[in-house]
Write a structure and sequence with these properties.
Number of strands: 13
Bound molecules: pyridoxal-5'-phosphate
Strand content: 5-15%
Distance between the termini: 52 Å
Helix content: 40-55%
CATH topology of the largest domain: Aspartate Aminotransferase, domain 2
CATH class of the largest domain: Alpha Beta
Radius of gyration: 21 Å
CATH superfamily of the largest domain: Type I PLP-dependent aspartate aminotransferase-like (Major domain)
Number of domains: 2
Shape: globular
Strand order of the largest sheet: 2-8-7-6-5-3-4
Order of helices and strands: HHEHHHEHEHEHEHEEEHHHEEHEEEH
């Protein structure tokens, strides 16, 4: 027979996808312009022209056997060298190509990393709210996901809860800053506190505790807040990077894993990353995309559009009376539900053609996520609907 576990995963699509599908049907019924679809984190800004230009040049000039050929398993050496040099220059961390593994985006970076480091019985900590696929990735690697709720007033790390959640089974902690779904950035002082705590716990339990930094939104920062580069603070760290969001290339599936050079036995750890990539079938990331991003390492899409959307939406919602966690980055906003059950709130919002995502799947009930990577015009036109929804609750 077939795997019951995979059958269940395949049949049960994510809530976000369900809402998105509902939106498609609804748009066909009443016209796309009349549905305020805030469900999906699909970048609305096109990739920079440079990406297209580089791709066109590569297609025109590169011999087919190179352009479309297999690269080496962890990725093309020149590409990995370019990324290592970029990390060295930008973050003053001693990166080498031998510690960089090219992947099909952050999802693959995370699954490979988790499979490389965890064994049965290990626990992996994630802070709620978190990207829902973490549960799937961690459990498939054979480990257990332990969720640590953030402080509800600002969705920052609650160190008391975190400290109690670390035990001798803790193998890794995942952070995601700027965060999906809240847009919150972990301030440097909290990164220092977190890494100090993990160092102390490593000593206490006499073992490594890895810190995995999931960074698809690193470049999407609107407040000048510093996004700490984790390998500069903590030896046993991994960076799981992706070009999906800041370079607007989610469908091209390209990213990488960087293993910190100061990690104990980093060569063996990198070999385990290669082993996990092999076991999962994630070798030789797409070649054209590898060659393309190597020439666009310092480029982003025009992210000022998200900054503008954020301001209009934040001002509009708070003027109406909503409680909003002000996001520093990414392109998501986390808004307090107007009733305890965020699913009921989501259902009621649908009556006003507002498609929001309940926070429960992100491990944070009582909130909804708004993905504001949409046309600015849609944000502006949605504000009266948000007002009507708010008034509707007042009439209860
Ligand atoms: N991690 C987080 C926090 C995300 O929001 C996403 C995608 O939305 C991913 C990982 C996966 O990204 P990718 O498209 O690069 O696989």
């Amino acid at each position: 027979m077939i795997s019951e576990k995979m059958l269940e995963l395949g049949k049960k699509s994510s809530v976000i996808r369900e809402i998105f599908e509902y939106g498609r049907v609804r748009k066909a019924e009443i016209g796309a312009e009349n549905v305020f679809d805030f469900s999906l984190g699909n970048p609305s800004v096109p990739a920079p022209q440079k990406v297209t230009d580089v791709m066109n040049r590569l297609i025109a000039e590169t011999p087919a056997e190179v352009l479309h050929g297999y690269t080496s398993g962890p990725g093309d050496l020149n590409v990995r060298t370019a990324i290592a040099d970029y990390i060295k220059n930008k973050y003053s961390v001693n990166a080498t190509p031998g510690l960089i593994y090219m992947t099909c985006g952050a999802a693959a970076s995370l699954t490979i990393t988790l499979n490389a480091i965890t064994e049965l019985g290990d626990e992996v900590i994630a802070f709620a709210p978190f990207f829902p696929e973490y549960r799937v990735f961690v459990e498939q690697a054979g480990a257990k996901l332990v969720t640590v709720p953030c402080k509800t007033e600002d969705l920052q790390i609650d160190f008391d809860v975190l400290e109690k959640s670390i035990n001798s089974n803790t193998k890794a902690v995942i952070i995601n800053s700027p965060n999906n779904p809240s847009g919150v950035i972990i301030p440097e002082k909290d990164i220092i506190r977190l890494t100090e705590l993990l160092k102390a716990k490593q000593q206490e339990y006499g073992k490594e505790i890895f810190l995995i930094s999931d960074e698809p939104y690193r470049e999407l920062v609107f407040t000048g807040e510093k996004v700490a580069y984790i390998p500069a603070y903590y030896d046993n760290s991994f960076v799981c990077y992706s070009y999906s969001k800041a370079l607007s290339l989610p469908g091209e599936r390209i990213g990488y894993i960087f293993v910190s050079p100061t990690m104990k036995e980093c060569g063996d750890v990198f070999a385990a990353v290669c082993g996990a990539g092999r076991a999962l079938g994630y070798v030789c990331a797409p070649s054209l995309m590898q060659y393309t991003i190597a020439e666009c390492l310092d480029d982003t899409a025009d992210v000022s559009v998200y900054e503008k959307n954020r301001q209009i939406l934040y001002d509009g919602l708070t003027d109406i009376g909503y409680t909003v966690i002000k996001p520093d980055g990414a392109f998501y906003m986390f808004v307090k539900s107007l009733e305890e059950d965020a699913y009921k709130f989501y259902e009621r919002a649908k009556k006003f053609e507002l498609l929001l995502v309940p926070g429960d799947d992100f491990g944070c009930p009582g909130f909804v996520r708004i993905a504001y990577c949409v046309d600015t015009d849609l944000i502006e036109r949605s504000l009266p609907a948000f007002k009507e929804l708010f008034e509707d609750y007042k009439n209860d």
